[in-house]
Amino acid sequence: MEKTYIITVTGRVQGVGFRPGVCRLAGAASLQGWVKNLGGTVEIRVTCEATELPSFLDALRHFPAPAQVESVQYREAPFERFDGFRSVPSGGTAKEPVFPADLGICPQCLEDLHNPADRHYGYPYVSCTACGPRYTIVRKLPYDRENTTMDRFRFCPDCGREYTDAADRRCHGETISCPDCGPQLSGLTGTDRLAGPAAMDEAIRLVRDGAIVLVKSIGGYNLVCRGDRQDTVRQLRRLKQRDRKPFALMVPDLAAASALCRLSEQEQRLLTSAVRPIVLAEPRAALHLPEETAGHVPLLGVFLPPSGFYALLTEGAGVPLIVTSCNRSGEPILFQDGAALAWYREHQAVAGFFTYDREILRSADDSVVKAAAGRVQVLRRTRGYLPEPAVRQVPEGCVLACGADMEPSFCLSGGGRLYPAQIPCELDNEKSERFLRDSEADWEAMLGITPECIVTDLHAGYLSRRWGQELAAARDLPLLAVQHHHAHALSVLAEHHLDGPCLAFVFDGTGAGTDGTVWGGEILKCRGAAVERAGHLQTIPMLGGDVSMKQAWKSALCHLAAAGMAEEDVADPRYPLVRRALAAGVNTIGNSSMGRLFDTAAVLLGLATENTFKGECPMALEAAAQQGIRHGTAPLPLALKARRDADGRLLWDAAPLVRQLWQWGRKPLSAAEREAAALGFHQALIRLVADSAEQFGLPDVVLSGGCFANGILLEGAVTELERRHFHVYTNEAVSCGDGGISLGQAYYGLLRRRLRK
Q1: What are the two backbone dihedrals, phi and then psi, of residue 403, each rounded to the nearest 5 degrees?
Q2: DSSP character for 729?
Q3: Reduced to 3 DSSP states, what percent helix, strand and coil does the chain have, rounded to the nearest 5?
Q4: Segment 176-200, tens digit of pLDDT
Q5: How far apart (Å, rounded) are the C-alpha atoms in residues 405 and 425?
Q6: pLDDT digit string (tens) for 506-539?
């Protein structure tokens, strides 16, 4: 018996293939009805035999990528007889709006780009329903062409036919266009203006010849150059004022990526996914790249072209390319045409300016991910993810979380979803702070969320906390503050819908503790919104507070002093001054940071002395340990000492390990000896985590904090904990570093709100 049903599909379903042809998924010829975009969801009204409905619903739930179906719900409706299957105009307001994320170029469009017989041949902005910009160009829901910056481009007859043809993969693809009717590439080199294929050819020639060019990408402007020429890379670093931080490399395809890195199947899937992220992977030993590109790091960032323009550029250049955001280091990426053109004219070192005539409404840097411990770690959740929710089915409520200062982010909650936004910049920069505030206001309007509560970090000196205080006062909203490492743990609890009790190991570089000291080597017992500090790295006096994060040598000297090393035993001429300052309490604060212990180990082994970028010293330590693993080096036996304090907390004393490393590093070390010590350091922490977990006996263990971006530590801890039959949970959807902390803050606000009801 035939019946009529109304089916509502929620998730990443806008403009990614949910068109009239969807009816063919069920394999039922009698399936008839229509599809409608409801401003964040898709509604399908269908008439079919009742026996056909289950297979159709199952096909919808497993709709192919890049769609990501969150839920499929249906209800019976008054019987209707339809004449075939069609799309109807969008309308209505979704209860839980989901704006679509930008999608990298799909394999079919890449084929069209390279097919001389196809009318999209060589067109840099080719797209279909499965790829192309969304978030960066959409003004409002529903996601229809007239609500995007594609509205000024009128279809040519061929594109108009494809848009309305249910059998065509470009049917209702809101960004589709061609050389006759779509965005056009133009170039400027000095005073010479170029257009179309001539501009593309000139961009390829300049890059191939070793020049730096400025390019408009999907989410903003990029600086592009060869990654294999030392002089060019040095010039790029001067332009960006970026001394040592590694660059990622764009390559045309998987074969080229495999020539640079050893890629697992999971890493290959990540590279070719619709997100088109930067994937951090193990570099090949015989890699011939200048040290200026990505020296002294354990993993190399590689990624594939997200657009037709970059596909043509990488193939034409024939070498790996550095493609990095156009900004001064620490500032937000440039995405407005006028500002980018002015920047180009101010910098003679940039040889060409290549753009197109479609407006970018909001910026989005490249996302960064890695595969570790059999799971995906999202280290920077930006283009390809924004603005989609990272977590669903959380308590109801509208909360704004303001993140932290080190990796600025914010998170909005609404409709049982958490929407985190990471902003790659440094918050102590005036442009960055203004951009963060403007972005949050844009998201409130875009998502239709009006916060009822503000949540910030506990650190009184954080600019993000001041921002939250100002918003709460201006809107007369309640203000909550959650301790930094508790928020890290809560970000994992939110992702995995854990209520507790569980044991969280949170390792990072800094965070204001509730006792007036700096925390960062934490064992937390978590249950719901409640937390107990069950243990930590033993607190030592350290100079300089947050400033010490950059001065790794200072952290090392403070650890040597805490370990009782005499002045005559330490050759560094700064050591006596440090000891006197510590004894007098000059600019001194208690510190239990695991990040600073990583810094100390790197310094004592002669691997690094300064963090000129975040995590530089720990990365050098991990790289040495990784080399030890590759070479089959036996690790140096190292250990921390564990004991209970008067309150029953488990304390980890690093002094024995520090003395061992100091003793080991007194002599000139060979590369193999450094590798052995670095590997021994990692294994000591892995054993410490597993042994400590056994002392508490809680079956669920959480790992979070920036130190767990270290692949050796994460994989080793997960493997050892699981071997001992613990259930281990980590950050996957958001960064384990401070870029993911706003998610935990927002979850804390929702839990507190639920408790008040």
Answers
A1: 70, -155
A2: E
A3: 35, 25, 40
A4: 999 999 999 999 998 899 999 999 9
A5: 10
A6: 999 999 999 999 999 999 999 999 999 999 999 9
